[in-house]
Specification:
This is CRISPR-associated endonuclease Cas1. With about 325 residues, this protein is of the alpha/beta class. The protein folds into two domains: about 70 residues, Ribosomal Protein L15, Chain: K, domain 2; about 230 residues, Up-down Bundle (Four Helix Bundle (Hemerythrin (Met), subunit A)). Helix content is about 50%, strand content about 15%. A hairpin with a 2-residue loop joins strand 9 and strand 10. The longest helix is centred in the middle third of the chain and has 24 residues.
């Protein structure tokens, strides 16, 4: 089974006899089967060298790095194998065409709004008014004609949606507002950690396709960021990250003891990260019966399918429709 590996300890990741080994500070060695590894996520202080990178490139394994607070900082990605100049040209053409870009920007939001409302309706006795407010804002999407206006609608919807967390989560996880840099409280820390993991997961799936991760539609492309992963994350954050947060906090699998604070920054400690990531991998491996493919697919593969749908849209095969959970 292909899987991701997470490293929290200090040590060294090295190559030996064409396989991967992690050696911790005490000299304990653990093998990571090379042909069963897709991504390695490094949260600890880990040494690597060029010999290791050559092996990772040979097997197409991505190495993701996270900072002290658990937030994504960068990725080593082997040279792209799936490349198509035609696809990238068509993707860029959709960005340059105002109407085509607006269609995709709205589509990503429609997918995300569907999943936000899906989450809130599970607590309809507490969230009915908030649902109505979000529905009213969503109706404005077809009226706006510029990307900044679309982003404005998204911002108001997201603000209302996050306020609902105060009535559907345990009281100790209440918060005043969404704060990112830095997270000001445990719930913001959870959201930021989960979103960071979401962006990395989507980026990994984009790399398996012919899409260019820097050409986006809702979020403005810019230097030093893979903004297409931000676009697609609008669909998947409420479907994956937010449901995991609700499950972990309401079932008290994660409590306030799983957070630390340093210089005004609140973040998950190692125990809290491990609990979140265990649930994360479990969720990504969960399967649903796909209505079109007529077979079971995992949540992780649903992300890849979204990428494939975009490619078909760009080259004129099929008009893109965002994922809207039916199960």
């Amino acid at each position: 089974m292909i899987k991701d590996h997470y490293i929290f300890s200090t040590g060294r990741l090295q190559r030996k006899d064409n396989t991967l080994y992690f050696v911790d500070a005490e000299g304990n060695k653990k093998s990571l089967p090379i042909e069963q590894t897709e991504n390695v996520h490094i949260f600890g202080q880990v040494d690597v060298n060029s010999t290791l990178f050559n092996l990772l490139a040979q097997y197409g394994i991505r190495l993701h790095f996270y900072n002290y607070y658990g937030y994504f900082t960068g990725t080593f990605c082997p040279r792209a194998q799936n490349v198509s100049g035609y696809t990238v040209v068509q993707q860029s053409a959709h960005y340059l065409n105002r109407e085509k870009r607006l269609y995709l920007a709205r589509s990503f939001l429609y997918g995300g709004i569907h999943h936000m409302l899906r989450n809130l309706r599970r607590h309809k006795e507490k969230t009915e008014e908030m649902v109505q407010t979000i529905e009213a804002e969503a109706a404005k999407l077809e009226e706006v004609g510029e990307i900044p206006e679309v982003m404005g609608v998204e911002g108001r919807i997201r603000q209302e949606y996050y306020q609902a967390f105060n009535v559907i989560l345990k009281p100790e996880f209440s918060f005043e507002k969404r704060t990112k840099r830095p997270p000001a409280d445990p719930l913001n820390a959870l959201i930021s950690f989960g979103n960071s993991r979401m962006y990395t997961e989507i980026l990994s799936e984009i790399y398996k396709t012919m899409l260019d991760p820097t050409v986006s539609f809702l979020h403005e492309p810019s230097n030093k960021r893979f903004s297409l992963s931000l676009d697609l994350a609008e669909i998947f954050k409420p479907l994956l990250v937010d449901t995991i947060i609700a499950s972990l906090t309401n079932n008290r699998a994660i409590t306030l003891k799983h957070f630390d604070e340093m210089e005004g920054i609140v973040f998950l400690n190692d125990e809290g990260r491990k609990k979140f990531l265990t649930e994360w991998e479990k969720k990504l491996g969960t399967t649903v019966q796909h209505r079109t493919l007529k077979r079971k697919v995992s949540y992780r593969y649903l992300i890849r399918l979204e990428c494939y749908k975009l490619i078909k849209h760009f080259i004129g095969d099929t008009i893109y429709k965002p994922l809207k959970a039916w199960w």
